[in-house]
Structure formats: structure tokens, C-alpha cells
């Protein structure tokens, strides 16, 4: 810790970055038909000039609102001494999430929590750079007491206490070195959603399924939920290509009623999906539990988490057997500190964590978390994957690297969150050069004209 003593945060800057993914229907699903993958991108600078980068993922419109929320939290960050934050990270995290007036517009959910995630992610990037380690290794090297000191256990004690967390983390130390070596050699398994976006033509789906099969992928996720006949046709198309020995997942992105989800999935069951993801409202714990119970005899699990608003809701999903695959998302809840709590609860209750990724920077970040889990907590990658989508990585200075359907363990210090300055200039909304160009060609409406 000595190298980070007395360093003050001197600035926090945030930018609205948007990529025009809706043009090709990249990222489309039954609920989100035209996403422009975007992010609120935070830069935190300390007195030495070192910068930490963090972001939260958005779908285009609304990113400006997250930017505003980040600016509202800024006074709580600028002027802080980083060593004070990292010595008692849980207290700092609580100061951000429980600010007595701002919390009214959350608390710990929605826009304010996305803003928290971007700031907290930047602070982890900074910490890892100060210690010259990738985040996964920083986490793996922290003593159990230090990990626990990052977590706000408020509202969790009926499922996990600090002492239980310490016990799980201490157990996780056995075999850590060996697992680190395996990770460095083999990487961590991933599945892809690249072939599955709902707005893609059948030809494109077939071409991409074949491409990723040839690249060594053995697990594929398809979007469903708009039209049952279409779903059946597409699942058949993809099964024809990948065969029956590969894993298939399906994702409805919250479009169904509870009974509708059960009925629809009975028709998709012959295609042997491993899980149905987000079958209904992301807040409906008991609805998910009902779906999970009904689909269990068909061998289909329930996956959710990418829109689970905080650790408390994750707790209830886990308590109620409402999910079999816990999909933490690196930018939805309040950054690494809160996600650590979810991993610990999932470990205690024996639920597999298969992180959501794919959106801008999500693959870059979440690979670190799952690698830490493998090395220092659950100790296994059996039956687990991190999602992978091959989009927007070219804009990152140190992008996620996938080879043979495995994420390579990042070696560069930080959280892999730094976006190239030229990409920031081109895609800042609405004044970036790419946006100016698209507005001038009439490809998108220029919002500045509405003012
Ligand atoms: C709108 C997003 O692309 C969403 O469809 C992503 C998602 O649900 C997933 O990757 O899973
Ligand atoms: Mg999903």
C-alpha cells in the first residue's frame, strides 16, 4: 500500500460514447430491437498524472442521463486520497451509494447505480495500475480480510456474514498457485452470442454459427421470444450446424409473462437448451422461481442477472432457487465491490456464475472477475462460461483476447478499460467525428437541431 499513500484524486471526467450498432442489428433482441452500444466513460486522475478508466454500458439514448448522474457523484470522489479509499473500500462505496439526498433517486438501482459502477470500475483500474497488476491478479493476491473490507455487507447477513465470507475465501486459497498456472496457460472458457442476434437474417445466423464452430466454440446463445415459429426454425438451423453435442442457450430478454415463458419453452425444449435467460421481468424473483420449477424436469435451467439491480435482489434470486446460472454484469450493479458479494453468496449456495458480457467493455472487465473466482474462490470452471461477443474490442487499448473459445488471462496492469483516444474523439456523442459524418449523411437524426 505504501506506493499509493497520500495520492489525491484531482479530477473526474465523463464522456458519452456511442457506437452505431443498430445499423446492422448487432446486439438486437426481442425487447431491445435497435441498440446503439454505448457507454458512459469515466476518467479519474490522481496527482501523479496516472489515470483510471471505468465505464458502464448503455444502449444509446439515456447515456446522457447516466453522465449527469456521474457528474452529481463527482464531488464525493474528487479530493479523496486513494489510499484512504482502498484501505476501507466498503466505507467509500457506502458513501457513494448512500449519499443522503441522491439515494432517494435509487437507492442502489437504475441510473444512480450505473453511475456508481462506472466510477467504482475506474477506481479499480487505478488501484490495479498503482500496484502494477491486472485486476484479476490484484484480487487474487488480496488477503481474504482485504477482500472482505471492500464489501458492504448491509442487507446480506441473513445469507452471508463477513465471517462466512472469510471462511470461503480462506478455503479458496488452497490450490491457488496451481489454478493460476492453469489459467495463464489455458485461459477461461467462453460461449458466444455472436450468431444469435434477433435482427440477423437466417443466412447470417448460419454463416456466423459455422464461423464460431470453426473457431472452436462449443457453446452458443440465440435470442428468442418474438415469434415462436421463427424461434423453432432458427434453433433447428443452428442445431443443424453445431450438432447435438454442443451447448445451446436461449435468451428472451424479459418479454414473457410467467406462464407464457413456461409454455413457450416447452416448444423449444426439443432443441435441448441449457438455459432460458431473462424469461420475464428482471425483478420478478418468485416468477423466475416458478419458471425454474416448471422447466427443471425438461432439463432447462433459468439464467438471469444482467439487469438484476443490486446484491439484495441477487440474494433473493439465490435464496428462492429462482436461478441456476447467475449472470453478474460488470457494469450494472455497483462495480467490483458489490459483485464480490454476489460471487460469495453464489459460492455459498452452490450456484454457478456465468457472467453476462458483450456490451461495450463488458468482456474486457468481466473476464477479470471470473478469473479471480476461478483462482481464488470457486476453484472451478466446470460447466461455466463467460459470454463473448466480438464487438467494439478494436476501440480498447488492451482488448479482451479470445483464442480457441477461451479468454486469455490479461497481463497488462489495470481493468482493461482504457479506450483509445482516437475512438473517444470519433464516437463521443453528438460531437465526435463519426457522428458528425453520420448526421451530415442523414443516417441518424442530429439531436442538436432539436435545441
Ligand atoms: C441489448 C443487448 O444486446 C442484450 O441483448 C444483451 C444480452 O441480453 C446478452 O448478451 O445476453
Ligand atoms: Mg441476455
From TrEMBL:
GO terms for molecular function: L-fuconate dehydratase activity; magnesium ion binding. It catalyses: L-fuconate = 2-dehydro-3-deoxy-L-fuconate + H2O. One of its GO terms (biological process) is amino acid catabolic process. Residues 202-298 form the Mandelate racemase/muconate lactonizing enzyme C-terminal domain. Its EC number is 4.2.1.68. Pfam families: MR_MLE_C (PF13378), MR_MLE_N (PF02746). SMART domains: MR_MLE (SM00922). PROSITE patterns: MR_MLE_2. Keywords: Lyase, Magnesium, Metal-binding. The keyword Lyase applies. It is an enzyme of class 4 (lyase). Its cofactor is Mg(2+). The keyword Oxidoreductase does not apply. Belongs to the mandelate racemase/muconate lactonizing enzyme family. ENOSF1 subfamily. This is Mitochondrial enolase superfamily member 1. The lineage of its organism: Eukaryota, Metazoa, Ecdysozoa, Arthropoda, Hexapoda.
